[in-house]
Amino acid sequence: MIIAQNNTFNFIQKEIESCRIPINDSSSIYHIHENLYNNEINLILKTENTITSECNKKSLTKKLIEKLKFSQNPIVEINNHDVKNITIGDSANLIPTKIVASKRLNYTSIIIEINSFSYSTVGNGYIYLCFKVDQKGKVIEKKIFESKLSLRTNKYKKIF
């Protein structure tokens, strides 16, 4: 974990130790839960059975399986509020790798880095789910973008 601070910008970066929860022979999910700057973040991401290891202790509820059954798109909750309309393209092998929070005077930015893994060298890259959260804990803006390379630390403060 990296923590940085100056007068106008506080920063936390955590690597996500990913393990997947199998749904069936071909699909799994990642369930990530973090609390950064008093913001509860839940990410549920459906993926193919990829190279990461299985989680032994986590189980799936039927409600969660139903939510994911018809969608490839992630489910994101911030402070117990669903973030709507998060659409990721046809990437099948998704692995969450990092979560970043930066605190400003009036808002907090939350950025989730997802590796879009491919067995070919052409398809690898990163998907960024970015959320601007006000002081009351509500998401007031979101951005989704892709990058071939992982972002450097100084780029996170330029997203919002």
Task: Lay out the secondary structure.
Elements: E1 2-5, E2 10-15, E3 21-22, E4 27-36, E5 39-48, H1 62-69, E6 75-78, E7 81-83, E8 94-103, E9 107-116, E10 125-134, E11 139-147, H2 153-156
Antiparallel strand pairs: 1-2, 2-8, 3-4, 4-5, 5-6, 6-7, 8-9, 9-10, 10-11
Describe this structure in words.
There is one protein chain. By secondary structure, the chain is mainly beta. 8% of the residues lie in helices and 49% in strands. It contains 2 helices and 11 strands. The strands form 2 sheets. It has a 6-stranded antiparallel beta sheet, with no helix packed on it. Strand 1 and strand 2 form a beta hairpin. The mean pLDDT is 82.
DSSP, total strands: 11
Q: Name the poorly predicted regions.
A: none
User: Taking strands numbered 1, 2, ... along the chain, how are they ordered across the largest sheet?
Assistant: 1-2-8-9-10-11
The major β-sheet equals: 6 strands, antiparallel
- Can you write the helix and strand succession as a string? EEEEEHEEEEEEH
Strand content: over 45%
Q: Whole-Å distance between the termini?
A: 22 Å
Calculate the mean pLDDT score and round it.
Answer: 82
Number of helices: 2
Derived from helix and strand composition plus strand pairing, the structural class reads mainly beta
Shape: globular
What fraction, in percent, of the residue positions are helical?
under 10%
What is the CA-atom radius of gyration, in angstroms? 16 Å
